[in-house]
Design a protein that fits this description.
alpha/beta, Substrate Binding Domain Of Dnak, Chain:A, Domain 2, Rossmann fold, six-stranded parallel β-sheet, globular, binds iron/sulfur cluster, binds Broken Fe4S4 cluster
């Protein structure tokens, strides 16, 4: 495959060309060496859950149709799938747990570098969690809110608190089908138990636990992460910034933060503005200290501090190949182990910081909330001191960069539609009811070298906004939209249908709204609840003209997200199929019958234009069921 077929992003193509000239291998190349991929793995029909196996089912019906224990293709594929959900939900939820820990230690005055910036959010949360507010210090309230959130992880029975944010009808569906999560950790553990050899063998029953666990992610762990981050670091508000590898600076110390949790990156922002360190940078001949992000850490510091974005998932290696990164610090999730070896070809220092995520050959500086700011300063100092080791001849910073607006939340943006003095979702609902807006779609998820980098995200997003669909976006999809120039208000005129254009122009928003990192998909769920509360669009999420898509997904976290979206009543289109196709009954269930129970279902479609067509048809079906007016400017 030529470089131009690997990505639509000019900076990426340029860096891939350079990597090729220098004989440097990236994920794009390693993907090619992996071809042909193992068919059993792709279809989800290999099992190594015990050592009587590994067993595999012959998809052509000629060889074995059962594992040694008698497990069928449906059983094996369902077990594998829910184990993916367990891993994904665990990752998001452990992130939430870490934030709860930071809030707790901050409330006890044990941290350096944190405060409670989102006081209003904290007080609202306290009310929701029935924490006493009156005559108490804000730290005392924060302490009890953190403890209440902690309890959600270990709870053994009952229902997760935030599932009560869902519409009543949805809560009833969950209760009736035993989908309501009892405790975040409990559900993950139960998946591991049920998928042990000789426990749960009925694919639908296995999926029931998968759904329950995923809901514990979306309406539990991820929601806790988002809400408590807003409490600690402040609620995001729309902010302008810049994206793509062109944000790296030739004459400044470049630091990249990569991973997911904002606990460290937020203090790195403060440390990079430290006077003493800025002076030191000047001493070494640099004009300043330039911070940029990759993956969801990028989203976190972008929406709260306007820090620029270097790139999304498949650009992490390319950032190092620019030769301009003096230090890349990583925490958890989506960090390629390849970075360690790659960095040895350049002057770049890679620093791991989480005790949960170490990398062979990579220097580790353990992060702790108690010493956050001193540790952050130490790391920034290392970057500054490494600036002098930069090799001019290895410097190749692409020119590409693009303006963006990020940081829309359920609290902020939609109220903004009502203007400053009419803070309400009414105008949004009215726009849908009157046919100015067809509906809304969340486009989220990763990059995957199996799909031309950023292409599916951008094609799908453009096609939907052309059809008067408001797009909300998170994660690496949001970063793809940023680089393609879709996150600026001017994009409405260029790409959106007339109805969406009118809304964007009246309010001054982009047609594609950046709502944060992967855990912030919980903001989309909260937004949908608010839309229903405003009235006029049905009683349940499954009534709404909305859908979700992950056109280039790769992570187990995306599987968990997909499941909690479907189980919340949302039609969800994946650009690559779930690895279940070897289980015929299971596949049929996921793309059809599951809708009878939860009101949402999956579709697998790799062509973004066909995916857009499926989505538009779905939105129109929902509009028809709600008896909404025809689209104002034609279908
Ligand atoms: Fe084979 Fe069953 Fe063991 Fe899986 S659990 S490896 S199908 S014997
Ligand atoms: S970072 S999970 S590659 S979206 Fe959240 Fe991007 Fe996917 Fe990681």
């Amino acid at each position: 495959m030529s470089d131009s077929e690997k990505s639509i992003d000019l900076a990426t193509k340029e860096m891939l060309g350079l990597a090729c000239n220098k004989n440097i291998c990236t994920a794009f190349d390693r993907h090619e060496t992996m071809e042909p991929e193992c068919g059993f793995g792709q279809l989800g029909i290999c099992c190594r859950n015990c050592v009587m196996g590994p067993c595999r089912i012959d998809p052509f019906g000629e060889g074995p149709q059962e594992g040694i224990c008698g497990a069928t293709a449906d059983t094996i594929a369902a077990r594998n799938l829910v184990r993916m959900i367990a891993a994904g939900a665990a990752a998001h939820s452990d992130h939430g747990r870490d934030v709860a820990h930071t809030l707790l230690t901050t409330s006890e005055g044990k941290t350096k570098g944190y405060g409670i910036k989102g006081k209003e959010k904290l007080l609202n949360l306290a009310k929701e969690l029935k924490v006493k507010i009156e005559n108490r210090k804000i730290e005392e309230v924060a302490h009890d809110v953190a403890e209440k959130c902690f309890a959600e992880f270990g709870q053994q029975h009952g229902e997760l608190q935030f599932t009560r944010r869902a519409p009543k009808k949805r809560q009833e569906i969950w209760r009736k089908n035993r989908f309501t999560p009892r405790g975040i950790d409990r559900e993950v553990v139960e998946i591991m138990h049920r998928t042990n050899i000789g426990v749960d063998n009925d694919y639908q029953n296995i999926l029931q636990q998968g759904i329950r666990t995923s809901l514990g992610d979306g309406w539990g762990g991820s929601m806790i992460a988002t809400d408590l981050q807003d409490v600690l670091f402040g609620q995001p508000e729309p902010v302008r910034s810049v994206s793509n590898l062109g944000v790296l600076k030739e004459d400044e110390v470049n630091i990249i933060v990569h991973g997911h949790e904002p606990t460290l990156s937020d203090v790195i922002v403060a440390a990079s503005q430290d006077k003493e360190l800025l002076e030191l940078a000047k001493k070494y001949g640099a004009k300043g200290i330039n911070l940029a992000g990759i993956c969801c850490t990028a989203n976190e510091i972008l929406m709260r501090h306007g820090i620029s974005v270097a790139g999304n998932f498949l650009q992490q290696e390319l950032a190092v190949i620019t030769g301009a990164v003096d230090l890349m610090l990583v925490d958890v999730q989506c960090i390629m182990p390849a970075l360690g070896k790659l960095a040895t070809c350049f002057h770049t220092k890679i620093i791991s910081t989480s005790p949960k995520a170490k990398f062979p050959g990579v220097e580790h500086i353990e992060f702790s909330e108690e010493e956050a700011l001193p540790i952050a300063k130490k790391i920034v100092r290392m970057a500054v001191e490494n600036y002098k080791n930069r090799k001019k001849e290895s410097l190749n910073i692409p020119k590409e960069k693009m303006e963006l607006v990020a940081g829309f939340t359920s609290e902020y943006v939609f109220k903004m539609l009502g203007g400053k003095y009419r803070a309400t979702y009414r105008p949004l609902n009215d726009a849908v009811i009157s046919g100015r807006l067809r509906g809304a779609v969340g486009i989220v998820g990763c990059n995957n070298p199996k799909i031309k980098h950023d292409w599916a995200h951008i094609e799908l997003t453009k096609e939907l906004i052309k059809n008067d669909v408001l797009v909300v976006t998170t994660g690496c999809s949001a970063l793809a939209s940023a680089k393609a120039g879709l996150l600026v208000p001017e994009a409405a005129k260029k790409y959106a249908g007339k109805g969406l254009q009118e809304i964007c122009e009246a309010v001054g928003i982009p047609p594609v709204l950046h709502m944060g990192a992967c855990v912030d998909i919980s903001r989309i769920l909260t937004t949908l609840c608010n839309v229903l509360t405003e009235g006029g669009l049905g009683e349940d999420i499954s009534d709404l003209p909305v859908a979700a898509a992950a056109p280039e997904w790769m992570s187990e976290k995306a599987v968990s997200i997909g499941f909690y979206a479907v189980a919340s009543g949302i039609f969800t289109v994946l650009g690559l199929p779930l690895p279940v196709m070897g289980g015929k009954n299971l596949t049929e269930y996921l793309i059809n019958s599951i809708e009878n129970t939860v009101g949402g279902k999956f579709a697998f479609e790799s062509d973004p234009l066909k995916a857009a067509d499926l989505i538009v048809k779905h939105l129109d079906k929902k509009r028809e069921a709600l008896k909404l007016k025809p689209m104002m400017y034609g279908e």
